[in-house]
Design brief:
756 residues, alpha/beta, eight-stranded mixed sheet, eight-stranded parallel beta barrel, globular
């Protein structure tokens, strides 16, 4: 097979090594525009896990790398005069030049043809090649020439950074944060050999401009950084090897993705196919793992190039998506350091360490138990370490025993809006299960406000009595508190119960639906009647009456549902609000009616009891609500007395394209909480105790709501306490013998695992 690699970086060189090693008869050539000993940047970072991946692919190159690596376990965070250290992270550093030379030598040893100082104009130069690997970097010429096919998406990010070196040796992976009159600057620094360290300085674009660096040359930029970080450099100079760059030495990170990586016998690899922000040190990792995967699929397919390329893309796209998601979280953390600067150093450092959502509370505990227990003592304010999820939380006069919430979940089991024995058992069991707060499902303020005929209501006296029976049980038999979520279905009403078809219209007996504008939820659903002022006044009165009855029914808290495309949400999003009066147009106008409803509720709800509002922080649709809007929406409700923002997302449009994953909505909560300083609740694919501890300890939310986990296990919180070895979580007294057996069985299982 004749193989051409365009680009002599880690991806191209390592792929060439693997293919030549697999079959010495392959004709493999690597073309590189630079000289063999040229490189720009300084050191690169590997995790211990990345080295293990290399071992199975080519042991000789791995061993040569190991002989040249600098290794460290600690991360040091310097913030506001404090240094906080976390250990056990397992990183390795190596000079980029040394790394490339090792790969070059190994490739030449195997018979790969290396052609340097050669500019390749395009894949058309190699008509007789069986396979052309375009690994020509972020600014890939091959990708650009075939952009209509590859469909690249290049997102240029908000920070400027400059990649410097220094002879100051940092023995830990070191993060430095310094505030200036213009904003924050941060450093990512690490040793990569006995004499040198990488020193990357990063800051927001607007801070960079305000500091005068937009007009600074390389020397002036280096001098600025030396002054700013002088106390960390101990008299050592900073150095640049990027004088080849035209214009500023400061660059913006481009996040690269492509719709497809394959065109005939051309395949993208490494930075040409994808990038991941340097703050998680995975660019080189991705490049090497791309090379391993493509070499393996070629061998498995018997050198059937089309089959191998399709298999390679299918496999690697999934893995890259996961890592890019983590890298995005990490990148956005560093883009918004000012958001977290109000945190205490302990929480700031913990937030930094867990920023990607790939490193979790228990993962940190495995690395450095003493560090995590110190965080737990600090967070709980106690002498003994307490898992953050089991610390109390106060909203006005309401104190919750812990941070776990049973999320509102539609059960479609009411009769004429009246909750019944099912709801008593359902909500009662989950209150007994240890959660600090239990939510009802969205309870509708009129018969016409229901989503389906099976939805609960608070629009008749019998509803008050039925709910009072439930709240009395919760208060008499559990330490949990209970919240009534009130809402109006709006355009999404008059549909079947969930298991008969989500958002599907009733086969018969439909009632008319309301909305801000005559925009249906989907072509299958009714066109709502655009609300008149009289309609608005009637709905406001219905919410007010339901709130008054919530007091009579004994609820500890109420929440207004203004998310998920229901009535109030349909006013907020421009996707369904097309009004031209005072209730449409600007976001302020679109919020007017939801805030009228809120104010009517707050006016009759006891001042000592908290109120929450659920919002959709994004529509997941271009032109709809986005993260900036979500902050403004949350701020508006906070200014009207909201105590808690329940931060959900989406479900406002049938055209939505959500980006799913673990804790995928938590970043929205994080932003609102830390920009506005208001309590938030995170929701969305939170299903492990580890998730809750990580979210709460980092300050990304104050409470965590779990839905499906509580459907599978009403006693989720009690079991989480047992799993974490936390004895302070009370069990219902009649269940104590079950608790003892449960703990014994867990200990026995753990002992057996150790023996095995």
């Amino acid at each position: 097979m004749k193989i051409v690699c365009i680009g002599g970086g880690p991806a191209g060189l390592y792929f060439a090594i693997l293919m030549k090693k697999a079959n010495p008869a392959h004709d493999v050539t690597v073309y590189e525009r630079n000289r063999p000993y040229d490189t720009f940047g300084w050191g690169v970072v590997f995790s211990d896990q990345t080295l293990e991946n290399l071992a199975g692919a080519d042991e000789p190159s791995k061993q040569r790398l190991i002989d040249s690596l600098a290794h460290w376990d600690d991360i040091d965070v310097h913030f506001k005069g404090r240094v906080i250290t976390s250990g056990g992270h397992g990183f390795c550093g190596i000079g980029r030049k040394r790394f490339l030379n090792i790969l070059q030598d190994r490739a030449a040893e195997l018979g790969v043809r290396l052609v340097f100082e050669t500019e390749v104009e395009g894949a058309h130069q190699f008509p007789d090649a069986d396979l052309i690997v375009a690994c020509d970097g972020i600014n890939s010429r091959v990708r650009a020439q075939h952009a209509d096919h590859f469909q690249p998406d290049i997102d240029v990010r908000k920070c400027r950074y400059i990649w410097l070196g220094t002879r100051k040796i940092f023995d830990a992976f070191t993060f430095l944060f310094e505030e200036t009159e213009h904003g924050w600057f941060q450093v990512h620094a690490y040793r990569f050999d006995d004499d040198l360290s990488t020193f990357i300085v990063e800051t927001r674009e607007e801070t960079w401009v305000a500091a005068g660096l937009a007009d600074a040359d390389a020397d002036a930029s280096v001098a600025f950084c030396e002054r700013l970080f002088a106390k960390h450099l101990d008299g050592h100079a900073l150095m640049t090897n990027a004088r080849h760059l035209r214009g500023s030495a400061w660059i913006n990170f481009p996040r690269v993705s492509n719709e497809t990586w394959v065109k005939n016998n051309i395949v993208l690899m490494g930075d040409a196919a994808h990038t991941a922000h340097f703050s998680i040190g995975s660019g080189t990792k991705l490049a090497l793992e791309d090379a391993i995967a493509l070499a393996r699929t070629l061998q498995q397919s018997g050198d059937d190039v089309p089959a191998a390329l399709n298999a390679y893309e299918a496999e690697r796209k999934v893995e890259v998506l996961k890592l890019q998601s983590a890298a995005r979280n990490s990148m956005e953390w560093f883009e918004n350091v000012d958001r977290y600067a109000r945190l205490e150093p302990e929480q700031f450092a913990y937030s930094l360490l867990t920023r990607s959502q790939r490193v979790s509370h228990e993962n940190l505990r495995l690395r450095d138990r003493a560090y995590v227990e110190g965080v737990e003592r600090w967070f709980s304010g106690r002498d003994a370490a307490v898992p953050p999820m089991f610390t109390p939380f106060r909203l006005r006069g309401l104190e919750l025993a812990n941070r776990v919430v049973v999320s509102p979940m539609a059960m479609y089991s009411a009769v004429d809006g009246t909750p019944n024995d099912f709801h008593l058992v359902h909500l009662g069991a989950r209150a007994q299960g240890g959660a600090g707060l239990v939510y009802t499902e969205m309870t509708c303020v009129s018969a016409e406000a229901r989503i389906s005929p099976g939805c609960c209501g608070m629009y008749a006296p019998e509803h008050v009595a039925a709910y009072r029976r439930i709240t009395d049980f919760v208060h008499a038999h559990t330490p949990a508190k209970i919240c009534l979520q009130l809402g109006h279905s709006g355009p999404k009403g008059s549909t079947r119960v969930g298991w008969e078809g989500y958002d599907e219209p009733l086969e018969s007996g439909n009632w008319p639906v309301l909305g801000p504008s005559p925009v249906p939820w989907s072509p299958r659903n009714q066109i709502p009647r655009a609300m008149t002022r009289a309609d608005m006044e009637r709905v406001v009165a219905e919410f007010r009456r339901a709130t008054e009855w919530a007091v009579e029914a004994g609820f500890d808290m109420v929440e207004l549902h203004a998310a998920h495309g229901y009535l109030l949400s349909s006013f907020i999003t421009p996707l369904t609000n097309r009004r031209e009066d005072a209730y449409g147009g600007s976001l302020e106008n679109r919020l007017r009616f939801p805030l009228e409803v809120w104010d009517a509720m707050r006016a009759v709800w006891p001042v000592e009891r908290p109120m929450a509002v659920r919002i959709s922080a994004t529509d997941w649709v271009p032109g709809g609500i986005d993260g900036d809007d979500a902050v403004r929406i949350a701020q508006a409700f906070a200014e009207h007395g909201a105590d808690l923002i329940d931060v959900s997302a989406g479900q406002t449009s049938a055209q939505a394209k959500p980006v799913y994953g673990r804790m995928f909505q938590t970043p929205f909560s994080d932003r609102i909480r830390n920009e506005l300083g208001i309590a938030t609740m995170a929701v969305g694919n939170i299903f492990e105790p580890d998730h809750v501890n990580s979210i709460v300890a980092s300050g990304r939310a104050d409470l965590c709501a779990l839905a499906r986990p509580h459907l599978a296990d009403p006693y989720w919180t009690l079991h989480a306490a047992a799993e974490l070895g936390y004895a302070g979580q009370p069990w219902p007294v009649p269940y104590h013998s079950g608790r003892s057996q449960y703990l014994r069985n867990r200990e026995r299982t753990a002992d057996m695992a150790v023996v095995v």
